[in-house]
Design a protein that fits this description.
The protein is α+β, with helices and mostly antiparallel strands. It has 4 domains: 2-39, no CATH class; 45-170, Alpha-Beta Plaits (2-Layer Sandwich), CATH 3.30.70.2110; 243-586, DD-peptidase/beta-lactamase superfamily (Beta-lactamase, 3-Layer(aba) Sandwich), CATH 3.40.710.10; 593-706, Trypsin Inhibitor V, Chain A (2-Layer Sandwich). The protein contains 20 helices and 35 strands. The radius of gyration is 33 Å and the shape is elongated.
Amino acid sequence: MLVIYGGLFFALFVKIVHIQATGVVNGQVLEARAAALYGKEAVLTAERGKILDRSGNIIAEDTLSYRLIAVVSPEASKNSKTPRHVTDPQATAKILAKYINMDETDIYNNLTKKIRDSKTGELKQPYQVEFGVAGRSISHEIKSAIEAEELPGIVFSSDTKRYYPNGPFASHLIGFAMKEQQDDNSFKTIGKMGLEQFYNEQLTGVNGSLQYKSDAFHYLLPNSEKMIKPAKDGSDIYLTIDKTIQNFLEESMSKVYEKYEAESMIAIIADPDTGEILAMSQRPTFDPENRVGLVDWLNTSTQKILEPGSTMKIFTLASAIETGNWHPGAFYPSGSYTVFDRTIRDHNNVGWGSITYLEGFQRSSNTLMAYMLENIGNDVFVDYLDKFGFGKKTGIDLPGEVSGTIKTDWAIDYVTTSYGQGSTVTPIQLIQAMTAIANEGKMMQPYVIDRVVDSEGKTVQKHEPTVKGTPIAAETAKQVRDILASTVTAQYGTAKKFAIDGYDVAGKTGTAYIADPDNPGRYLSGQNNYLYSFLGMAPADDPQLIMYVAVKQPQLETGETGSDPVSEVFNSVMENSLKYLNIDPENVAEVDTFTMDNYISKNTSEVEQSLRETGLNPIIIGEGGKIIDQYPNKDLQVTKGSLVYLKTEGASTIPDFTNWSLRNVLIYKAMSGLNIEIAGEGYVENQSVSEGVIARDSSLIVVNLKTPEETFLPPVEEVSGELIDLPQD
């Protein structure tokens, strides 16, 4: 026995020494085995970058949402007086089908499905189930409604979703992003269209991780270290779009689109001095939040071609003036013009007899363009069109841009191109070319991305204005503007409906044929089968804005003309935008302003009283006492009635947010650090936590906003200077 037991102990001793020396048992490395058992890793999800307008207003961002979970195992209800799992799958499925985008049958099958045990191979009921894409991105309102049904076993987990607070707002420009299930069953937000897709890599960011060691019950093991690799949030993209001007455009286009039942519409507004696109929209459009209305995935401004009609006469005129072939007082026979066996006619078919060049342009005579082209020369004319950027891409920072075609196959092609038929362009090409007319001959490249800022606040991409060329001299540009202004003011002008009180408008109407889809080489006929447009600028002597509007196949009543729907959009949007930009200070009422002082380290009560006496509204963040931060900062100008935020130590008392703007709520959220969920756009209608309640950092506060009718007047809380840098949540 002694020998036997001695041998066993000796063998055990040898085994222990071997394990200590090699760290291997039965071919398995113990260190790796321990790491597999106790090592844990959690993903730290990177937040997708925001898309903002030129002033920092949110256009797209990640926001708090919820994920729907159903606990289906009876094990969850053990030792509980009330059921904590789904007790009636059929009834639960019927109710949930009212709130999520999933059929009742599919919900029921999901609630009753079985899974195969990886160890035994037997089918068993899972502990809980989810509902894929249909159960994610649940809003606070839907969550509250489902919770009110008091369904056993139905719970929610916090999640994020892509939020578009402005509804159908430059939708074909912005595009949309949505969560997609990956191969590893995780979900990731992917850009599917527009800027969301084109800049998906910059917006997405890089996930981080948290590594730690825990026991079988997931408790952190003693003396174990946590290794954190922080997530790198996606970059923020600031656009050149001005939210206020864009809202003017969206509202006006919606009214005209509905009123005239048009086939489609397109409009662009730009700053001619820089090439910045301030607004861009089209109809039909869609809501990026739910994709309702999405029937056309192309951005008409850059990805579709059209025949420009008489708006092209602007550049034929510029070419004639630049080459010395514009003679405003000279006479020509209007009515018709023949090229070999082809005859073109003026839009009234018979003309107006012998008239001057100037009157012919004001009447939008096609034959005038033909006579001027004789003097310019076909090759020189095409060369000028090339200088104006037609027939090639502008290089705008948007995906899928097309170039259009300048037709030169036959002699008649040069003539028809001179008045805008046959050859094709894009709306963005017309905008680019028009900057040369408005900007003393310098043609500016259009762009929509102002800058890209990474998660650390560093600008990684900045777009500066780019001169694409100088197709004409400054004096030529001024003459063209003067002649375009006369089409609005002259007795025979075709653009008289585009006059705006208080501003001189310069521009050119256009009426283009539409190709017949059923008869190649032919055009549609009838008053309602044209593309009506206007390319204009204001003020005429020093243009601050240029705008292109086109309405395809509006349903016109007897007595109406194609200029009616187009001018309804142009006039209202241009006038409101000019006033919003204070282009005409004489018509803008003076506003009392106040220069901010430095209140940091001062006592709250004294500063609060002083601010109220000057007509400002102080908002105290914290318990009061010594001020540690303020907004607006020292030396910034604010208007009377503005909110001033004073931050102190301690817990904050919730204010009454009623009628606060979205911007003010965002500033309060950033400075207070409170968990505030914002739903909607415009001004606050109600809040989930009452005024006067002391807030806790973890408490959720839901603030619901409603959208009022837009006006050109800025909110009373508008502050001059830079916007506050809002922290990442």
